[in-house]
Amino acid sequence: MKKELALGMMRLPVNADKKINANQTIKLVDHFLEQGFRKFDTAELYHDTQSEHAIREFIVKRYDRNAFEVADKLSSWRIPKDSSAEQFFQKQLQVTGLEYFDRYLFHSMEERLYPEAVEKRYFDFIFEKKAQGLVREAGFSFHGKPELLDKVLTEYPEVDVVQLQINYIDWDNPSIRSGECYEIARKHGKKILIMEPVKGGLLANLSPQAAHILKTAAPDASIASWAIRFAAGLEGVDTVLSGISTMEQMQDNVAVMKNFQPLSDDELQVLGQVRALLNQNPRVECTGCGYCLPACPMELPIPGFISLLNNVKIFGDLPQIRNSYKICSSRHRADECVNCGCCTDVCPQHLDIPHHLASLAQWAKNSAK
Questions:
Q1: Cβ distance 271 to 168 under 8 Å?
Q2: Mind listing the pLDDT tens digit for each residue in 97-152?
Q3: CA distance to 71, 139, 151, 232, per residue, from 189 (Å)
Q4: Whole-model pTM?
Q5: Contact 146, 184 (CB under 8 A)
Q6: Most distant CA atoms of the chain, gap in Å
């Protein structure tokens, strides 16, 4: 069964100064290509705008153009007010050193971005670039609700590919609903690219109890390989995108995908046991609707905070989660909640949001010790 692996250029090895480590990245790129894989994924903002430069220096300058494929993205919120999508696109070609992109995606489509995308004709812009030969496949990455996905694919049937966040723990997650999104993409007959199959590394760092279940079933298989095989094994999935930071991760991902075998029915049952164990601590049933955002006088990123709290409940206190909280709280912290109740008043799920924010704030305080 032919399945593709793409190297995401967003979690590359870095030095102490946060600059991408050239020697280590070159080794990852070379091994990836030597093993017969060729797809790379980048965006203007990845690695604090270093990622597109890495594409040029470590791939474009070192390999023939027919040896690799590159996907880049139109990050609409990154376009300066006095600039345009055309200028943004041309700069991306210049920085990467490419004459065309194999795939070009509207970046992170969700409810708050869709009206502007329609108004400014961003999808039409991408389709025009495809017609001009500057883009081979046109599409979008998606972080919204299934209803929006259905709307976009209905209104823009020219879309070639859809990049979805899919992994076994988010499949029935009420705020992500990745299973429903997958079914909608299938209904529209679109090529599916999967991002976050290991959920940013969280599904490679399971609790001892969860890891024991997987190791008992397959002692020689890595914990991460179960997540990769779940995502790649879905019918209609063309490519699984993995953000790789180490050679160990690279070798493991390549070994899984080079001779790919989907999970058997028995293995899916084992994964079901793991999912049940991870979900033993009840999650906050936030659907990510965002009604609380305009109601909050402190302008707290409430859905993001609730998502982090759920990750703590599922996976425990992991470095990835602490780093995500640091990023999410760069402007406001969870302990800045003034307990006014404005968010609870408008929450369709009637969640006690101040209570949950207090729980996250207490976790953040304890994890900093």
A1: yes
A2: 999 999 999 999 999 899 999 999 999 999 999 999 999 999 999 999 999 999 99
A3: 20, 13, 14, 17
A4: 0.87
A5: yes
A6: 60
